[in-house]
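Just scan my protein:

. . .
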Amino acid sequence: MKKIVFFVCLFSLMNISFLIAEEYDAVRDKTKSATSFFFSQEYRNYLQKHQNQLLEERKLMQTSAVSPNKHFRIHFDTVGKHAVANVDLNQNGIPDYIDTVCEVFDYVYEVQVEKMGFNPPRTDLYESDCTLYDIYVKDQVFDEEAYGYTTPLKMYGDGNVFKKWFSNITIDNNYSELDSVVFNSKKYPLFATTGLDGLKATAAHEFFHAIQFAYGDDIKNGINTWSVYEMNSVCMEILVYPEVEDYLVYVNSLFKDLSEYVFSNTDPKNGYRYGIFFYMLCQKYGENFLLKFWQNVEKGNTCFEALEDLLVSSGSSLADEWMDFCKWIYYTGSRAIPDKYFSFANKCKDIKPTKTVEFNDGSWLQTEEILPYELRYIRVILLPTNGVFKTADTADYIITNLNTEATIKQMPEYITYSFLLSDVYESNYTEIIEDKCWYNLYSPSSFLEHLSFIYRGSETYQIENAYPQPFDKNRDKELCFPVPDYLKLGNKVLLTILNMELKEVVSQELQVTLESKNRVVVYQPADLEDGIYIYQINVGGVSEKIGKLLIKTN
């Protein structure tokens, strides 16, 4: 039994910023939801042999409780490795963690079924008059090493093209920040979001999987689009609990490399990251969009068929919405626009370019292949010709392949494109900077499309004296020093600071940078004592700037 009980870490949201390793994305894909495995043929083969064993699982847990709204039966253990904390502060005979599980799942049911109008999953697998859906509580360290999972147990059909499923859900017994998983011989936290927030995200995600199983299992002519199931469940997390930000882990993972995760590829890892695409559609067309989508799937359309059909009937298309999505994701992070696009845009990290090119003159050419609904992000930094008084102009290009038919039919049809930069104009080139630089994006395919975003550089200025003066240790953090007017941004100088006895107390090489459009070098003088100092800016062994400093503590 774990030493830490649930209510201790109830509102803990773990900071995972220290997990720099690229493989942590793979850990998150593994632990987010084990439901994706149950879509596989491997599981279906297993189910044929072991269905009775799965159906007997509800007898293996030690006890159970019914949720107040009588929608769920929560199965749990009070002793052993899967036991929940023996804490019952309200003295109702039910562990407080199970009370919380009941409350959370009843709320999820209220939102997804009663408010949004989705059909609830079938509950009459064991008894014809049963109205309770089964939830199992197990320590995921000893189970599937996941936040939770939804298990399809038995198929049923009503003449529909797609079979439907009875199912149950398994969740963790405390979502502790101490739980860990070993991946590639390294230990990582099992949950990026812990405590109550971990439970909320899992409940919203997995119960929507249970609802999806009740609408249909979209295998058609050997084609499946199960990544879209994950997109919808992640989207539902945001809709049900917008304050729980587990989804941002996947958004920021996507933004690290757009080309790594292809929307048209049905690997579940892509689904986790593109949940925000369906969230965008809900923002534009209303939350009812999801219900209409699953009603379309229930008719026998695969997910991408259902999506395109619904968008066309709404006066749009997948291609149109994808291009709009490119704009929505671009205006995130430092480019977020208040009250426009994603409401969480300012909480995201900036999208990292797939390729960054520094260009001044001549030409540059790149030829690549791109899959349907894959994204490439090329950043062009146009270096200023004088390099002194102006920052670089920047041109960002998001490139994609809008082959919707290939996406629906799950045909990985690459198209080739060439991206050319030139300082010489040709008739089919597009101007980036007036009379300076042009680009040409070419493909023999009509499916190639792109968006461009141009940012003009800003004027910069030379200063004569260091600032702020006097420097107050309780108020100020950095000192800015002047540099010669001929130095470019990025050039290096040697900063020397002497005390009044002309003893050298600082000697440090620094790069010319910008501070409020001023060309300066920046130094943090936290270790300098109060007093008057002399500074020198040295370039190539020559003292170019000399001045006085006053440092004090108010």
